[in-house]
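To whoever is covering the structure queue this week,

Two jobs came back overnight. Logging them here so there's a record in the thread.

Job A:
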Amino acid sequence: MIIKAGENVADRFCVRDPVLSDHFAVSCTLKLCKVLFERKRLCYRKLKSIEVSELQTDIGNSPLIHEEVEDVTILVDQYNSVLSSLLDKHAPLNKRVVTLQPAAPWYNDEIKVEKCLCRRLEQCWRVVVLCMLIRVIL
């Protein structure tokens, strides 16, 4: 029995003799639903791409420098509006949609440690093989 009685997960079973082995090949069609992962919209700015000298020039030419304002609330509004517009000019807001994939439930700390150990041993093995090849060549 390949599946439990009453389950409607697989159908159209086919048993074939591939002639390559003493085993038969069993194939079927699986009725599985694809899991749709959550999608998230991200907004970001490339701040590292800002030309600092151009930004300094724009700030120097802005009303923040050339206009005197006595009222604090008006000054704060002016700072917010001028600096926001300069930020939009020099580092425009970019939008991107990413798919959030959940972490594999079977991947735990023990597997992570063993994987790191395996990589380290592979690197050591490569060094040993390389040294042996160099000895053979010389």
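Job B:
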Amino acid sequence: MINLRPNEKRAKTAITLIWIVFAFEMASLVSSILQYYFLKSVENGEILTIEAATANDRRQIIIGLATTAVFIVSAVTFIQWFRRAYFNMHLLRGKHLQHAEGWASGAWFVPIMSLFRPYGIMKEIYENAEELLYKEKLIEVEDRRFQTIGAWWTLWVITNILSSALNRIEAKADSLETLTYTTIGHIAGSILFIPLTLLAVKVIKNYVEMEKLLPELQEAGTLSTTTSTDLLDS
């Protein structure tokens, strides 16, 4: 008897935190827009006070730090859900999987590898769940699931590369023009965060729907014929 560990609560927590990050990111979007107009006013020669500049900088710093803090918490909850999903799939599929269960968390922190391995593990989780459930006619395989994963990961990589590049440029910005361009870049990044959020939530929800059905495989007797060798080898 294989006892899968509960994961639905972790999924709900991850989704909740994603929406909280989204709210902060939208606040950041508004703040960046305000900064853009502030910078354009300076560029146009309007007389602005030091107090106004200080208020703008303070607002940007506070929102930036708050968004970063919430993002870190959100990342932790997402990885906890992700690793539990891969752990359960290891119980079901064992040697059929390409990576050790620990890579579901570790791969996010390894340079270069973080650009592709988490996506590969997510795809692997989906593929194996669909294969097991489809054999018992518990689901109909939908290619749209894989399209969602691909779009989610593409946007994730783009937004992270964009954010890293902008932060490096902004740290060395020595002109009003450069700061204006980086502000525009942050606005673009925040706008991209909208579809990224929707896709991230969809990726989790899609898998939750399948994960709920996995225990039914034991009742159907599928696991005893497909994974007993793997469990003995592990």
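Note for Job B: The chain is about 80% helix and 0% strand.

Please reply-all if you pick these up so we don't duplicate work.
Q.
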